[in-house]
TrEMBL record:
GO molecular function: 3-dehydroquinate synthase activity
Domain of life: Bacteria
Keywords for the protein's UniProt record, in alphabetical order: Cobalt, Lyase, Metal-binding, NAD, Nucleotide-binding, Zinc
Cofactor(s) essential for the protein: Co(2+); NAD(+)
Summary of the function given for this chain in its UniProt record: Catalyzes the conversion of 3-deoxy-D-arabino-heptulosonate 7-phosphate (DAHP) to dehydroquinate (DHQ).
EC category: lyase
This enzyme's EC code(s): 4.2.3.4
Protein name, UniProt field: 3-dehydroquinate synthase
SUPFAM superfamilies documented for this protein: Dehydroquinate synthase-like
NCBIfam families assigned to the protein according to its UniProt record, in alphabetical order: aroB
Stretches assigned to the 3-dehydroquinate synthase C-terminal domain: 176-319
Domain 3-dehydroquinate synthase N-terminal: 62-174
Amino acid sequence: MQSVQAKDYQVVFGNSGYTALNNLLREKNHSIIFVLVDSNTHEYCLSHFLQNLETNRPLEIVEIDPGEEFKNLETCTGVWNVLSELNADRKSLIINLGGGVVTDLGGFVACCFKRGIDFINIPTTLLAMVDASVGGKTGVDLGALKNQIGVISNPGLVLVDPYFLGTLPLEELRSGYAEMLKHGLIHSQSYWDAVKDSDYTSFETLGDLIRQSVAIKNEVVLEDPYEQNIRKSLNYGHTLGHAIESYFMEEESKTRLLHGEAIAIGMILANFLSQEIAGLDASVCDNTSKVILNYYKKVAFEDRDIEAIIRLLKYDKKNSHGTVYFVLLQEIGNPVLNQEVSNELIYKAFDYYKNLSNK
């Protein structure tokens, strides 16, 4: 599969991707190679990766706990201490083998250690492949507030190996699929049609769609690397989606939602807001929302939940001068940025979600 050329690195795929990886390692001649994993990727992914790795450099495995709750500065400190104990220097390399938590945190660890060492990302979840693989966003959460601490810095290479998808439970595949649906909504009718009618459990089908999603995000990032303009469109559904995800993470009475599950809700809410504010056709709003609902279970929201979620909106990274800004759609493939939304409309959006049926 043809690679995708990002700003100053490549996203490579499958078996040919390992050739590119091994060539890069020979070229760079790093002092020590550290492979950052969590306990899941250590068990299910590391062996396959090492079988395809060719290097004579010293190799160290560093393991962290799995899950969003460990994507924090405390975990970073633990990794930095391990790097120091194992004599990492400025010519060391970190290979981040895992989902978005591992690649985001590992990239941030690399950017800060000795003011910056090289890192390579090997995403092992569908979400990380289509979302974290492009854009150079690294960072960690601040409590339950997502991605509040971080920097933009590109890896030396990203290797997408569909083999790892076979290690995932179905709910993790579904979580990543939400980002592909988002790419369809913000990019084009043709990609939306291709994704919405695909089988996210078929790795043969997914392979080409993953590459298309990577290419779509890459196209946006190349135009706007620091999220000053069009890159904000990649946050469609994420303003409320991130707030929902954070709320369900910190509220003990709630069952935690995966990222894609929360973003799916956020996209349905954003569809309604787009209809009300940006002129999205009502039939498009309903049809696309029903497609999304067909893949993700309905979640119940009480008024107190919505109030708490609205309070969390003030921490969204797109905000400026105390104003919460949304990405909305005029039509599929035509997002509009920096839209202000009243709390009254947000309540109506939740009512729309509550009453929506995928029939």
